[in-house]
Amino acid sequence: MQMKEWDAIIIGSGAGGATVARELSKAGKKVLLLEKGKNHNWIGNVLAASRYVDKLGMRKSKEGLMIVRAITTGGSTVIYSACAGPPPKWFSSKYGIDLDKEAKETVRELNIKPLPDYLLGERVCRIMDAANRLGFEWQVFPRFIDPKKCIPNCLECNLGCRQGAKWTARDFIEEAKENHCTVWTEFNVYKVIIKDGQAIGVFGFWRSRPVNVYAKIVVVAAGGLETPIILQRSGIYYAGRNFFCDPMTIVYGTINNSGEAYGIPNTAGSMKYHNEGIFLADFIDPRLIFPLQILKKGIQYLPNCFKYNRTIGILVKIKDSPSGKINTDGTFSKFLTSEDKQRMKRGIYLAKQILLEAGANPKSLMTTPVRGAHPGGTAAINSIVDKNLQTEIKNLYVGDASVIPESMASFQVLTIISLAKRLARHIQSKI
Asked: What is the pTM of this model?
């Protein structure tokens, strides 16, 4: 099949792709949004998540590091914790990209703010009080959550929000569709069509049928793992290097009181050690995911699986070296350097101090296997794309976490939306 012609084709419907689609369609541009996954309407529990979480969260590097992502409309925003943090200052100081305007605009549009006290939960407050007694400067984070729709102690943010309280990129997709953006799901993009040094369209498979579609502009926003594969197939062979993933582990401990509600995971945390590349926050896995993470440590931890209602946890996330590489066949390499391991060890030590202060049994402390939280860097600014996020191929842009040049070790979504808004405004001036 051959189809012509769009103002812009956007590959990927996560935070970046959905934002570009929304902004361009709002400006009256003819936009086609392509998504590899389905539009899964059943979300919000483990069984549902097994249909859209890539390989059940077991996608691994050659070295065994797990990377978690979702393949569905809205991408990984369906399973993120909905926390918001401002774009790092180094975007401006090191790379000459000021995202302050776009970030503030997004905060106003989506009413991003910290959760009210009644949604915090007693175990979250227990951790926060203990951390502040130790001087960790623990604070409640701004969230992409409407508290009026939120159910206290739900604990399912990271499986998909059934209440519609959590903003996801699906909300921007719906806005784009209202402005006549066309959305095709189950479209597996193979490569960008290049002619005379510029992008003119996309070749892929729509529900197994080979299809060519054409446009003035192509934006690849398929995520930190998928975007570099598409770019490599399109002739940008250096894409896929500089891969980081914000590795994280969770340190768990048990307390005596089983009657305390947990609240919403990732409600509050500390940026005190962020200059060292360490981020800390409260966290607990969803109820049915929790025992799986425990048992990965070994059968000796089986008794911990039955103590969910007495468990408190702290997420340790680190800034990792860009030591990974994505290959054209979809395999990838990612390992933790000695510096990364030392940083993780330091973060685990700090987390244990807080848990002990919060009343956790010292013998109950344990850590989960390390997971990769935020794949990025694989089409980095000043390497694969310029400051306008254009590649060496004219009219071919990248609009997702791939362009972030170094690990943020914190929340990415507000930064990705801000980059995508900036990109959309640049594209509008070109078409």
From this structure: 0.96
